[in-house]
Amino acid sequence: MFEKEIQELYKKIPTSICQSECSKCCKDNIQFSPSEEKNMGGYEWNGQCVHLQDGRCTIYDKRPFVCRIFGASEILSCENCKPERYLSQEETVKIIHAYTVYRNQELKETEK
Predict the structure, then answer these.
(1) How far, in Å, CA of 76 to CA of 19, rounded?
(2) Of 13, 14, 17, 72, which alpha carbon lies 20 to 30 A from 90's?
(3) Closest among 16, 23, 19, 12 to 71, alpha carbons compared
C-alpha cells in the first residue's frame, strides 16, 4: 500500500490550530484512501463526520489528508484555522496531485 507515502505528504502540510468548536471541514462528505479509512477506524457521514463529537474531532491525530490540508492552504483557507504558514497555490496543487496518485493506486490495489 501507499500508507508510508501518504504519511510523508502529511509532513509537508503546516500545522494548523483551529478555534474551539471549529468544524467547518467536518460537514462535507470526504474522500480518503483505504489505509486512511483503516487508520480512522472507519468512516460514516450523516450530514457530518461521525468522528465529530461535541464540536471536536475524536480522531484528530489520525485524520485523513483532506482534513489536514483544509485551512492550511491559500486556496483551502478557513477563517477559523491559523496555520503556522499557508501553503501556496503551487505547493497545494503539487501535494494534492501526489496524494491523488497514491490514493488512486491504493484503490486499484484493494480492488484486486
Answers:
(1) 16
(2) 17
(3) 16
C-alpha cell at 102: 497514491
* Chain segment 63-87, per-residue pLDDT in tens: 999 999 998 999 988 888 889 999 9
Its pTM surpasses 0.85: yes
Instruction: Please count the helices (runs of H) and the strands (runs of E) in the chain.
Output: 4, 4
CA nearest to 3, candidates 32, 25, 28, 29:
32
Task: Give me the torsion for CA of 73, 74, 79, 85, rounded to 10°.
Answer: 60
Bridge-partner residues for 82, per DSSP? 17
In the chain the beta strands, taken as DSSP E runs, fall at: 16-18, 52-53, 56-57, 81-83
